[in-house]
Write a structure and sequence with these properties.
Elements: E1 3-10, H1 16-29, E2 30-31, H2 35-43, E3 47-53, E4 58-71, E5 74-86, H3 95-109, E6 116-122, H4 125-128, H5 130-134, H6 148-161, E7 166-167, E8 172-173, E9 181-182, H7 197-205, E10 214-220, H8 228-234, E11 240-242
Parallel strand pairs: 5-6
Antiparallel strand pairs: 1-3, 1-11, 2-9, 3-4, 4-5, 6-10, 7-8, 8-10
Helix pairs in contact: 3-8
Length: 243
């Protein structure tokens, strides 16, 4: 039985041991991981969500950045999730989802009236699947064609963050060099729930995910767009989980 503690901390507070454990996690679950890319992702982020086994080692993390983005609809507030991984035996905890729910809502409330959007890039079905858990409306999705406004916001993000790699025709980030990608033999490399329409859509929308292609996804952060699950998580504070 393990106690898992979740917390969101500034990047600059990470210790050398934290960074080493985070890098080790990425290497265990992804191919093409380099120390340079890992350091670059951290340097470009503001916060990190950490999962710890009690007060000990890091068993999961996700990097986060908040920013202002100029779009055709005006300047919006953005939230971007970068490198993300959770050790397999700790994936039943709601620690990450709870921390992200707080982060989304706190950012929306402090955005000085700007519309707020969550940007997620996904090279695996597990990451994509968090969107229908958190939001009623998100894109791309099998449920509907992407509205022009969401397309313009997504393109603005892709062209800003990945100007050389983003392809607006497909909504994918396509790298022309060795990059981080899921291991072909891992659970992320195949569809374990063949009847799940969200997972099936991800494989259609990002057919070259095994090469490291990332699908750029967007959802507006507004209470009207929160699922019941997200609303419940926002009400939870300071919890630990026992697995």
């Amino acid at each position: 039985m393990h106690t898992v503690v979740a917390a969101t901390v500034p990047v600059q507070t990470l210790t050398a041991i934290d960074r080493a454990e985070m890098f080790d996690l990425l290497c265990r679950y992804y191919l093409g991981v380099t120390e340079a890319d890992f350091a670059r992702d951290l340097a470009g982020k503001e916060h990190v969500m950490l999962l710890r086994e009690g007060i000990g080692r890091v068993v999961g993390f996700s990097t986060l950045l908040r920013f202002d983005l100029a779009t055709c609809a005006g300047t919006v507030r953005g939230i971007f999730s970068g490198d993300t991984i959770v050790e397999e035996s700790y994936r039943r905890t709601l620690g990450f989802a709870t921390e992200l729910a707080h982060y989304l809502e706190d950012t929306r409330r402090t955005s000085s009236g700007k519309r707020t959007f969550y940007f997620l890039i996904s090279k695996g079905w597990r990451t994509y699947r968090i969107l229908p858990f958190l939001f009623k409306d998100f894109h791309p999705t099998y449920r509907a064609t992407m509205p022009r406004e969401h397309q313009e916001v997504r393109d603005a993000f892709g062209n800003w963050k990945y100007p050389r790699e983003y392809d607006p025709r497909t909504g994918r980030i396509i790298f022309n060099h060795e990059t981080q990608r899921v291991r072909p033999q891992s659970a992320e490399a195949f569809d374990p729930l063949r009847d799940n329409p969200h997972i099936a859509f991800f494989f259609r929308a990002n057919p070259h995910y095994l090469h490291g292609d990332e699908l750029v996804c967007v959802a507006e952060v507004t209470p009207d767009n929160y699922t019941e699950g997200l609303t419940r998580l926002i009400a939870v504070r300071g919890c630990t989980w026992v697995l």
